[in-house]
Write a structure and sequence with these properties.
Layout: E1 2-3, E2 6-7, H1 31-42, H2 44-59, H3 67-90, H4 97-116, H5 125-142, H6 150-154, H7 171-195, H8 197-200, H9 205-231, H10 234-241, E3 248-250, E4 253-255, H11 265-273, H12 281-290, H13 296-305, H14 311-321, H15 326-362, H16 367-370, H17 380-394, H18 404-421
Antiparallel strand pairs: 1-2, 3-4
Helix pairs in contact: 1-3, 1-4, 2-3, 2-10, 3-4, 3-5, 4-5, 7-9, 7-11, 9-15, 10-15, 11-13, 14-15, 14-18, 15-17, 15-18
């Protein structure tokens, strides 16, 4: 028997026989019930969502209400509820953290679809109660929000016959997931390289390789972002992909929507490079809001980086102490180029992806639809202001709190050292 792609034992009554959760002797979850729910998510769920999205797109509206379509919406809610109920009634729990996280994502797909099609109101509370209970239990066990996040679409989404879970069979959804996930992987590669630099010192010859590797990874980020901008259709994204990322309720609490940037790597780069200060109240707010939406291992990485000395501080300290050796100068030049690459990627994302794919089409949305246009919850203009400030910090623009002056100081120290050598 398989449990979300992992082979487990069987007790002869169709129940998986895995070890206890957290040593508490919790009964393992009924793997057959989980598999039935997973198959539904990959098949009928996708077919019904796609039928609804095609009808919405033909009408050029975010959602359409008519008897036939409303019946399909309720079928999604009812059929999902029937499949989740035996999982909850079984009383078990997947023993491994990754299995629990993947199951949370599958339940989140269902709840996000109910929100998207607006069948999660008071009249659907009874049917949704089992899904809410399961999501809360899984989220609590993992220390994450009890909802679907982008990690569930990208890194914790096992492919079956080459296909990972999606809401629809629309090409634009796959384009959006694939290139955002590839960019996130490239950011992870850059962050992994930079995490290894502080212990060895910024003038170490091995650090040269790591700085070059991080720069190559950010070049990949830019390439994936450019491909996404060229390939993704603005209208398809706005009408048929974006609505699945909205905030939704789990029991009595509403959680903000999924965000393709909900990984620690980009924030690790912010802090390790010294472009964003974890003591800055604005940036602290960004990290605090984001942390519970990160995968568990990303939460640990983020906690580990915020107290470390930044590479900018390390370069300034060593360059000021002198002498500016050839290796220190070379690594500092790599570092400065890396900072520029990080700022360029952030600016591209803000001006070439966020603005044209969200801000611009939102202007044409009906007034009653503009209030909930963002995944973050607050009004669009508030979210855009946050994102603009974050992009400016990453690009070290001339504004209060940016690293611009410190970077200029490093450039001057390196230049002075070069003249002294000459």
């Amino acid at each position: 028997m398989t449990e979300l792609g992992r082979v487990v034992g069987d007790d002869g009554q169709g129940r998986a026989t895995c070890g206890p959760l957290g040593g508490q002797g919790v009964q393992a979850m009924d793997a057959a019930a989980v598999d039935r729910f997973d198959r539904w998510i990959r098949q009928e769920f996708v077919e019904r969502n796609t039928e609804l999205e095609e009808a919405y797109f033909s009408a050029r509206r975010e959602i359409v209400h008519d008897p036939h379509l409303d019946t399909i919406k309720r079928m999604i809610r009812t059929d999902g509820a029937k499949l989740i109920a035996p999982i909850v009634e079984d009383g078990g729990m997947p023993p491994g953290a990754q299995e629990r996280y993947r199951l949370l994502g599958a339940v989140g797909f269902y709840l996000a679809s109910c929100r998207r099609h607006e069948v999660d109101g008071p009249d659907g509370a009874e049917e949704l109660s089992a899904a809410w209970s399961l999501a809360n239990l899984l989220g609590s066990s993992l220390g994450v929000v009890p909802r679907f996040v982008f990690a569930h679409q990208s890194f914790y989404n096992p492919a079956v016959h080459d296909a990972y879970r999606t809401f629809t069979s629309l090409d634009d959804e796959s384009v959006f997931i694939t290139y955002n996930a590839l960019a996130a992987l490239a950011y992870r590669r850059a962050a992994h390289a930079l995490r290894s630099v502080p212990p060895m010192g910024v003038s170490n010859p091995m650090a040269t390789y790591l700085l070059e590797d991080a720069r190559a990874a950010l070049d990949d980020v830019m390439e994936f972002q450019r491909t996404l901008g060229r390939t993704l259709d603005v209208d398809r994204f706005f009408f048929n992909v974006r609505p699945y990322f909205k905030p939704y309720r789990v029991g009595g609490t509403e959680y903000r929507g999924a965000n393709a940037g909900d990984f620690s790597a980009i924030n690790e780069l912010d802090v390790l490079l010294g472009l964003c200060d974890p003591r800055d109240p604005f940036y602290q707010g960004i990290l605090a809001e984001k942390r519970p939406y990160l995968p568990p291992e990303d939460q640990a990485r983020l906690r580990g980086v915020v107290t470390a000395e930044s590479l900018l501080e390390a370069f300034l300290r060593e360059a000021a102490a002198g002498p500016v050796t050839p290796r220190l100068r070379e690594n500092a030049e790599h570092f400065l180029a890396l900072c520029r690459a990080h700022g360029t990627a952030s600016s591209f994302h803000h001006h070439k992806l966020v603005k044209p794919f969200l801000e611009e089409p939102a202007r044409d949305a009906p007034e009653e639809r503009r209030k909930g246009i963002t995944a973050s919850g607050p009004p669009l203009e508030v979210v855009m202001a946050w994102l603009a400030r974050l992009s400016d910090l990453r690009a070290a623009r001339d504004l209060p709190g940016s690293a611009r002056l410190a970077l200029e100081r490093l450039r001057n120290l390196i230049a002075d050292g070069a003249r002294t050598d000459g």
